[in-house]
Write a structure and sequence with these properties.
The chain is of the alpha+beta class. Helices cover 43% and strands 19% of the residues. Helix 4 packs parallel to helix 13, helix 5 packs across helix 10 and helix 9 runs antiparallel to helix 10.
Amino acid sequence: MDTDGVRRRASELPDEPGIYQFEDDDGRVLYVGKAVSLRERVRSYADPRSRRIAKMVERAAVLDFAVTDTETQALLLEANLIKRHRPPYNVRLKDDKSYPLVQLTDHPVPRIQVTRDPDEGATVYGPFTDKGRVETVVKALRETYGLRGCSDYKYSGRERPCLDYEMGICTAPCTGEISEADYAADAESAKRFFEGEVGVLADPLRRAMERASQDQEFERAANLRDKLGAVEALHGESDTAVSDAKSGATTDVLGAVVEGDRAVVARLHAEGGKLVERDRYTLDAPDGEGPAGVYRAFIPQYYAERELPSRILCAEDPADTEIEQWLDAEGVTLGVPGAGREATLVELALKNARQRGGQDDSVGALADALGIDRPERIEGFDVSHAQGKSAVGSNVLAVSGDPDTSGYRRKKLTERNDDYANMRELVRWRAERAIEGRDDRPDPDLLLIDGGDGQLGAARDALAETGWDVPCVALAKDEELVITPDRVYDWDDDAPHLHLLQRVRDEAHRFAVQYHQTLRDEVSTPLDDLPGIGPETRKALLRRFGSVERIRAADSAELTEVEGVGSATADTIRTRL
């Protein structure tokens, strides 16, 4: 494209904000930019500011553009298109971070939090472009309404308020300083603010600023003025996750990524403009099928037996007339957003599809299933004893799904026939060592307890007592149910994330039993004095029956099932033990 061609094309563009992109003869995007005025910005390329840009303009054959409502939308769209097309003449970030959101968690006493990865069931607002601004607004909301920012683990089991209460940014519902009903009303005020009622927060800040000024507290007044500015600016940027927030409206946002001969589709589900659900699906993608083909296959297969949403948003057009006609007949709008919040959500769906890997990424699948950050370091815990004797605990480590024996630890426990008390002692020992800096291992991303609800409760008691903030779940042996503080999961037997937890659980059990047997075998027993029974036979008997009392109760047939025990030895045991 020569200089005259750039000027002619610029004269055809509107004097409005938007994005523009230079493409070559093959339709490859060479460069994406944003502009307050498309006409003026593109005209500047007639006199390129660098050799690199001049070379790009020479290679370009087409200049395309899209108008946006605001400069902020142009910023978001530019970032999305750079990530999507990876144009060679753009400077590209490699961290692939998504835009921040604000969530109020699905809890009787909800937590308010700035996050890039919202919890399942949370009420979510955003995305927003300025993380610093949204953090300022959330802090102002906490100062005004006392909403908690602590995790559920720190919230439960407290006996006295934490420092946030003393600082005036939390009303301490954890210890009953405010009733759940009153707290719920304050949380509702925060929701009203994010849903567009700016005065819910702006008015109290303005009154406080005026009082500070009258009292000549000018530094405080200036601080409140800055917060007020952030509050008002935030609502100029975004107020809901999806712009169509009509009552009853539902939107599914799909992001598809092809990985070799498989594809991953991430789905974000919004109701009334708020994100409420996230999940992922894996498809076969033979013959190098691209994302458009994945959408063509996924949409009719996925929605064949599911309720259709009001709208489906995709990163690319499926380009299938029959699908479009079917959805149109069902009253469903199919779209590919080009700008604004919805385009950002499409990019968030793509990020979810990319970040978690494929079907074999059990760590990513576990993170998605539990709604937690990716648990690269998982520590497993189990206890073992013989009717309270030789009680021990194991603490094993898996990193990226594989055992890391350098992180294995074991501990002698108080001798008692109480699995719950033993688990509480074991986890408390680990937590105290971590908090006091006496453990040379990094903190784990997830604790896995071998047992059921009782063992999980004991472990969480230990975490609450020590204040160690680490997610904790349990895996029960009989039905292979995954138990969390909020719910019980019954995953498919072939689920890779279930297999991961089973491997960690089984390793913790093996390590605990091994240590228990070592200690038990070191203790002298009446078997030591029996003729014809050496160390190996003694160990085999204890492994088989668990205790001397059970050996005494066994009959000759049961005893001779143990390797090394013949009929004569069995008779000796029965007559002299």
